[in-house]
Specification:
The structure holds two protein chains of two kinds.
Chain A lengths: L3 E4 L2 E4 L5 E7 L5 E8 L3 E10 L2 E4 L7 E2 L9 E3 L8 E8 L8 E2 L3 E5 L1
Parallel strand pairs in A: 2-11
Antiparallel strand pairs in A: 1-3, 3-8, 4-5, 4-9, 5-6, 7-8, 9-10, 9-11
Chain B lengths: L3 E4 L2 E5 L4 E7 L3 E9 L5 E7 L2 E5 L2 E6 L4 E6 L8 E9 L5 E3 L3 E6 L1
Parallel strand pairs in B: 2-11
Antiparallel strand pairs in B: 1-3, 3-8, 4-5, 4-9, 6-7, 7-8, 9-10, 9-11
The chains are: A mainly beta, B mainly beta.
């Protein structure tokens, strides 16, 4: 089944404790992206990747890192999480960026205390 | 002012009604996406369009590039259509998406 998976789905952590949210797709998509969703602000793009070893900042990249060492994986790294990073995070992929629709993962609800 | 604005923010309807959700944008775009977010949180892509009109089942999406406006229509609405509908604009020469804040639709039997 074609899908985007994220892990973990729920995470409660403390300020400053490094964490990684994994994202994987099995559709051989070139484009992958991370978004956060906050009440009243909607979805905002954090980082995106056009292909392996090619990443770029979205609108809210501060406090996040990403890497794209393999085509299928695009982990989101929070080196020192803070409470303002409490949010619902979505990973998405598409065949080739702007030209194609996006497939979304199920979301990761992160709480930083 | 947001670059992508949706209206209305909230919408209630009786089953069977015709629904229209509007999206206006202020940037030049290469494509506009319509997404559906279910009450459980999952997001599904409904349409991606750069001109004209697309139809899938009871859903129709239209876009007017000159007026920088898109609409999502739902014919013969059903309670299972209850969700948040989000439009997102992909700017010219960029792979960033700019999202509207969504329209929450509730359809009652």
């Amino acid at each position: 089944e074609a899908q985007v998976t994220q892990n973990p789905r729920y995470l409660i952590t403390v300020t400053g404790k490094k964490l990684t949210v994994t994202c994987s797709q099995n559709m051989n998509h070139e484009y992958m992206s991370w978004y956060r969703q906050d009440p009243g602000l909607g979805l905002r793009q954090i980082y995106y990747s056009m292909n392996v070893e090619v990443t770029d900042k979205g609108d809210v990249p501060e406090g996040y890192k990403v890497s794209r060492k393999e085509k299928r994986n695009f982990p989101l790294i929070l080196e020192s999480p803070s409470p303002n990073q409490t949010s619902l995070y979505f990973c998405a992929s598409s065949l080739q960026g702007r030209l194609h629709e996006q497939y979304f993962g199920p979301g990761t609800r992160l709480t930083v205390t | 002012k947001n670059e992508v604005e949706q209206s209305p923010q909230n919408l209630t309807a009786q089953e069977g009604e015709f629904i229209t959700i509007n999206c206006s944008y202020s940037v030049g775009i290469s494509a506009l996406h319509w997404l559906q977010q279910h009450p459980g949180g999952g997001i599904v892509s409904l349409f991606m369009l750069s001109s004209g009109k697309k139809k899938h089942g009871r859903l129709i999406a239209t876009i007017n590039i000159q007026e920088k406006h898109s609409s999502l229509h739902i014919t013969a609405s059903h309670p299972r259509d209850s969700a948040v509908y989000i439009c997102a604009a992909r700017g010219d020469n960029t792979d960033k998406l700019i999202f509207g804040t969504g329209t929450r639709l509730q359809v009652f039997p």
